[in-house]
Amino acid sequence: MFITSPNFRHPVTLAKDLITLDDVSDGRLTLGIGAGGNGFDATTLRRSDEQPWTPRERADHFDEFVPLLDQLLREPSVTYEGTFYAANEARNIPGCVQRPRLPFAVAATGPRGMKLAARYGQAWVTTGDPKLYETGTPEQSVEAIRGQLTRLGTACESTGRDAAELDKILLTGFTPDRPLQSLDAFVDFAGTHFALGFTEIVIHNPIPDSDFAADEKVFERIATEGLAQLGH
What we know:
The chain is of the alpha/beta class.
């Protein structure tokens, strides 16, 4: 599942869904989870008289959401009352197929999110630096992501973890690069980011007339030839 957020979910019902999906997939499920964003993502479930959460409010919800979800997926019964969420004898039996729970891939770029990734994540997800998407250069993007990796390492050190324990996932489509322009462009892009330490690169299925529109033939070549050229 990639990526859900508190904008759409409650930890108790999400835990139930995840346990079912983990069972149906025979333990092949990873949860991608982030604090959520602006625009459509923030307003879909809001009444017209409700304001979307501010960045701080999203971070506040995420701070409570992730630990509670972790507890719900590990323990057979959870009672909890927090600022934003509550659980009253929430039962999750028999629990996840994967033990002690299914893995979390935590999307984060800010300090609070990085701490959550360091403490609860089996993987970390980034989309790069959004400030560079329209006016930045690929070189600036690489430097910004390198800085994010450094901050992730610092967050891991503060929790007693080695950052090497976490997979690093880059979700494409939000950096100045255009890796789907050609097979060579993708190979160059992927090689650069694998060298930074990324273990996975996620590309969007090309959807016509959207931000993710791309030549389907190029997309197919990337899927069939790209990894071979990279030696993966």
